Amino acid sequence: MGDEIYTIDHDGTLYYDFRGNRDGSAKVKREVRYDRNLWNVCAQLQVRLPFVTRYPTAGNPYSGFGNAELGYSYGVRSPAFDHSLEVRAAFPTQSNGVEAIQTQIKTFYTTKWKWTGGSVSYMNEFNQAVSRSSLVRYASFYEGELVLPNSAFVDSPALRGLRISAIYNGRVLFNRGGLYQSAIGGLLYGNLNDVALKLVDTWGIGPHGLWKYRVEATAAARF
């Protein structure tokens, strides 16, 4: 959520994700997250509890609990450069067939270079399934996410640090012969008093776009 995430002792987050797929199907994820600092403000523990609704190309929508995640992150900030390392485990807790029945390990390394009036960040993600049902394929991919220039355009005590950015996602699917998928879009984020807000819109590009259209909304509040 920006620079202030490392100052929060503990916080709750509501996350909404709508993803329209290229085949006409869609997926909605509503997620509750809880973060808690550990021995210092750099180390955090996070729990993610998702509820998923699937909209198939034919038939009625169906819903269920998704794959719960437990994560640990450690981030270091400085005036000119931030970086963080995160490891998450996703467990096969899904119901009603809304997610793949597999345990996944997700690792993230994020860097952010900052200057007066802007910044550029890049997130590396590697996702690997370590157990699975015989009915699903192993998930194994690398994804990079580039965000820039994080330019501020509102200077208000109530809307602190409201910024706009362009975003690019590129994913390599190792379990599909190195297939490359990508998406491009925009990001808006800032703080409304003590609530951190984030809105992301992206569109799949190229013959193998990551998705047709995706919108994500996040609200995090400290307590």
List the secondary-structure elements in sequence, H or E: EEEEEEEEEEEEE
Largest sheet: 12 strands, antiparallel, barrel
Structural class category: mainly beta
| Proportion in helices | under 10%
Tally of strands: 13
Please give the order of strands in the largest beta sheet.
1-2-3-5-6-7-8-9-10-11-12-13
Classified by CATH, the class is: Mainly Beta
Continuous helix count = 0
| CATH homologous superfamily classification | Autotransporter beta-domain
Alpha carbon gyration radius: 18 Å
* CATH-defined topology: Lipocalin
Q: Would you identify the regions where 5 or more consecutive residues have pLDDT less than 50?
A: 1-8
Ends apart, CA distance between termini: 16 Å
Specify the CATH architecture. Answer: Beta Barrel
What general form does the structure show? Answer: globular
Task: Report strand %.
Answer: over 45%
Q: Report the average pLDDT across residues.
A: 90
Count structural domains: 1
